[in-house]
Design brief:
This protein has about 190 residues and is mainly α. It is built from nine helices and no strands.
């Protein structure tokens, strides 16, 4: 197994363990066991658990950025994009569990380093949403504000669905799309 394969295996194992146990309760030994690699080898690739955490986050960001880059090649409607984001709750709820874990760590971290990481995650999310939104609403300041509102909606609706199986996320997304459509049509009539 190559060095890159071992590193990737550790990142994948850490993601799984962090999602299941939480960062604080996860140990290097847990991650090594999940990866079927010795604990000492974990320290060969990552100096500590926080570096591993940040490597997991970096890998997740790259994965979704590649996905968005592929989507931007074709014409994707705002409805398709919103439904794709909603589908993550159903198809990959661990992605949101990961987000909540890292948000929690960023809020609690005294050094400010993880807080900066969380701020960067949120900024990247707003930026990736505001670019296509600016084409729809024609105003970069409003597009950025709308992106922040949508990001809050996505995270909040996902949280409700993850903790409450009875929550009707489909209805909420349909209404969100309707509200979004009304805002876009109002913005375009003002331009």
């Amino acid at each position: 197994m190559s060095t890159q394969d071992k590193r990737k295996r550790l990142i994948d194992a850490a993601y799984k363990v962090f999602v299941e146990k939480g960062y604080v309760n996860a140990s290097i030994k847990d991650i090594a066991n999940e990866a079927d690699i010795t604990s000492g080898l974990v320290h060969y690739y990552f100096k500590n658990k926080e570096e591993l955490l940040l490597s997991v986050q970096d890998e997740i960001q790259k994965h979704y950025q590649r996905q968005y880059d592929r989507q931007s090649d074709g014409a994707v409607s705002h409805e398709e994009l919103l439904f794709e984001i909603k589908s993550r709750v159903e198809n990959n709820p661990d992605w949101y569990r990961w987000r909540y874990e890292i948000y929690s760590l960023g809020i609690k971290n005294g050094s400010g380093h993880l807080e900066q990481q969380v701020a960067s995650i949120l900024k990247d999310g707003r930026d990736s949403l505001s670019k296509p939104l600016q084409q729809l609403v024609g105003n970069s300041h409003n597009a950025s504000a709308l992106a922040s509102i949508l990001l809050a909606c996505f995270d909040g609706l996902a949280l409700q669905k993850i903790v409450d199986d009875e929550f009707d996320i489909d209805h909420s997304y349909r209404l969100l799309i309707e509200l979004f459509g009304l805002y876009v049509s109002k913005s375009n009539s003002v331009i």
